[in-house]
Amino acid sequence: IMKWLLLLSLVALSQCRVTKVSLKKGKSLRQNLKEHGLLEEFLKKHPYNLASKYFPSLANDYASEPLTNYMDIEYFGTISIGTPAQEFSVLFDTGSSNLWVPSVYCSSPACTNHNRFNPSDSSTYQDTSENVSIQYGTGSMTGILGYDTVQVGGIVDTNQIFGLSETEPGSFLYYSPFDGILGLAFPSISSSGATPVFDNMMNEGLVSQDLFSVYLSSGSFVMFGGIDSSYYSGNLNWIPLSAETYWEITMDSVTMNGQTIACSSGCQAIIDTGTSLLAGPSTGISNIESYIGASDGTISCSDMSSLPNIIFTINGIEFPVPASAYIIDQRGSFIDVPTSSGELWILGDVFIRQYYVVFDRANNQMGLAPVA
């Protein structure tokens, strides 16, 4: 009896995992375009509307979803799909919910210079008759949905639905440092109703806790099923979600040197690993840039040391972001969210680099603590 109990315990342990996926910080699309002398032309042709990710009705011909500020995205990790495994570099995006990768069915330039999934090389692939379409800046990612084994770190998810791209129009994906996207938001915003990867992990009992955590400082990673307290100082501050779509919370205010500069009556904020910068309504962003003396977004080197923190107060707790974080190459890391749907802020990587973030699906809450 003891032998069988031990075996059962080992089986349970093998199925319930905590796994850490290392994230690379590589060249951003902005850097790649600049090195190829294409940045200025690209920006003229493809103006950017961040609001389209969160409010599709506001999308214009150039709006994109789900790559938000794709120009500066730098964090991506490796997963594998199929049997035997085919490896892909993906953006782990808490602001979208679909997993998709380029496929051999796609002949767009953006596919031909990235890893492409070949279903015929996988003995575990199952096709479907379903299509998937996600709008991008110069067209769309279109493709088909299929099922296969997806391995993320040490977790093997044997029946995961994912998108195989057939078209990827435009040039921005051509220069992106990752192959595809692994969305970590809620099923309610998943295109074609496809079950997100983390939902499948939870449903199959593949994670020891129904949460994942993100660390974007030195040695970046996303950890599925666990929290590593050695990467943060103090205690985690738990914040309830205000919606189960994106990782959306209610923010109390945005202040600098004790002066309220935005969100004076409370507002909504989304914590999004797929957005590089700090984004907010035009008035709030203008107030910040005016307060720090930015001219066309540029800051004088001599002013850097005297710039104040931006304080985001959430659930009664102050979360400061110092000038060393929000000024990059003498420019403020801010972008407008043009929306008529109330005051919305997107706390992207500029914010997340300062805090260890726990995305808790079991309790629909988020945990934040300063990085150690």
Automatic annotation (TrEMBL):
Limits of the Peptidase A1 domain: 75-369
EC primary class: hydrolase
GO terms of molecular function: aspartic-type endopeptidase activity
Annotated catalytic residues: D93, D272
Domain of life per record: Eukaryota
Position of the signal peptide: 1-16
The UniProt record lists the keyword Transmembrane helix: no
Alphabetic keyword roster: Aspartyl protease, Digestion, Disulfide bond, Hydrolase, Protease, Signal
EC number: 3.4.23.1
S-S bonds: C106-C111, C263-C267
GO biological process: digestion; proteolysis
PROSITE patterns in alphabetical order: ASP_PROTEASE (PS00141), PEPTIDASE_A1 (PS51767)
Similarity comment: family membership: Belongs to the peptidase A1 family.
Function: Shows particularly broad specificity; although bonds involving phenylalanine and leucine are preferred, many others are also cleaved to some extent.
Protein name (Swiss-Prot/TrEMBL): pepsin A
The organism of origin for this protein: Chelydra serpentina
